[in-house]
Amino acid sequence: MAKTQTFGDKTKKKGADFKVAKLVYSVKSEKTNAWKFMEKNVRIPSGENEQKFLSDFISRETR
User: Fold this and answer.
1) Most buried of 10, 21, 52, 60, CB within 10 angstroms?
2) Phi and psi of 28, rounded to 5°?
3) Number of domains in the chain
């Protein structure tokens, strides 16, 4: 017979030492002077400050 799997067994998976956040931010186009929205899924390492990590990510992407 097969072993029954409980919900607790499913949530105990190892290797997930990060959080995933969907980040939506706006960027102004240089050519058309219009606003466009960028959408990315960002992995945040555990133990990091989420707000600081996301603001640093946005500043790196908009250079």
Assistant:
1) 21
2) -90, 130
3) 1
